[in-house]
Every structure is written in C-alpha cells, then in structure tokens.
Amino acid sequence: MRTYSAKPGEVERHWYVVDASEHRLGRLAARIAIVLRGKHKPQFTPHVDTGDYVIVLNAKKVNLTGRKLDQKLYHRYSGYPGGLRSIDARTVRETDPERMIKQAVKGMLPKNRLSRQVIRKLKVYAGPEHPHTAQKPEPLPEAR
After folding, report:
1. What is the distance of C-alpha 3 from the center of its chain?
2. Which of 10, 19, 39, 72 falls between 20 and 30 A from 62, CA-CA?
3. How many CB atoms are located within 10 Å of the residue 13 CB?
4. pLDDT average, residue stretch 24-39
5. DSSP character for 128?
6. Is position 3 within any domain?
7. Does any domain span residue 132?
8. Residue 22 confidence (pLDDT)
9. What domain range is 87 assigned to?
10. Backbone φ, ψ for residue 43 (5° rounding)
C-alpha cells in the first residue's frame, strides 16, 4: 500500500461562512486556521494547500474575555529607530476589525510560503454582508 499524497489539481474546495459575534477570538481563529490548511479533511497533505475558503462576518462584534480589550496590544514596527507603534484591542476593533481576526489566524499558521498562500483564502468583513453569495457558502462545521 502506497502513501496517498494530494495533488493541487485534485483538491475539492468548499466555502464556509461564520458569524464572529457568537465566538471568542482565539477559539475562532484556531478553528479557521484548521479549515484554511485543510487539516479537517482526510486527504490532508502538509506540503499541499488542501484547505477551504472561510468568510468571517461581524468581525466588529468578536468577543474578547477578561480585560483584553484594554490590555492586549497590537504592535507595528517600521524598521526605523523609534518606529514601534502600539494600539490596544479596543481601538483596533473600532477602526480596523478585519485586522484583528486576520492577525490572530495568521499567527496560528506555519511561517512559510504555503501559509502566505493559505491566508489569501480568508475573507473577513466587519458587517453582516459579503459579496460571495455566488459561491454558496455553508456554515462552518463545529470542531470535533
């Protein structure tokens, strides 16, 4: 019996939609990272993108526990001396809520070329509408 290895042309992709208002940020990001990589499929192959597309709605309403809204900081560094900028999670959620979810998911993916390809399949929207109705997205299945 030979070991099965998925080929990029043989992968069947699905579209999933999830409402972020009913989930916590870290748990949602972990579930999305699994689906984006394709680890929920039996034909998962580590060096091939076997994952599905994920649409996240209501990113502005994602839950954070405890005092993370005021204590969690998002950093940005320009590369120059004195170029470190930090803003708290409350400000990020008000100004750029998509960034909060994208950055959480990106941190849970491996740091390589494949993850840069995988993160493009994540579509995040601050409100409840999205332009991907033609792809007929299904609700994101719960983790087992």
Report:
1. 30
2. 39
3. 12
4. 96
5. S
6. no
7. yes
8. 87
9. 12-139
10. -95, 25
Helix (H, G, I), strand (E, B) or coil at 19: strand
Residue 87 lies in a domain: yes
Residue with tokens 């870290």: 26
Please give the tally of structural domains in the chain. 1
Give the C-alpha separation, 72 to 80, whole Å: 23
List strand residue ranges (DSSP E) for 1-144, in order. Answer: 15-19, 53-57, 73-77, 84-88, 122-124, 138-139
Instruction: Note the pTM of the prediction, 2 decimals.
Output: 0.92
Establish how many alpha carbons lie within 13 A of residue 60's alpha carbon, considering only the half-sphere containing its beta carbon: 8
144 within some domain: no
Alpha carbon 66 to its chain centroid, in Å, reads 22
How many CB atoms within 10 Å of residue 142?
6
Query: What residues form DSSP beta bridges with 17?
Result: 55, 139
Give the pLDDT of residue 103. Answer: 96
Res. 143: pLDDT tops 80: no
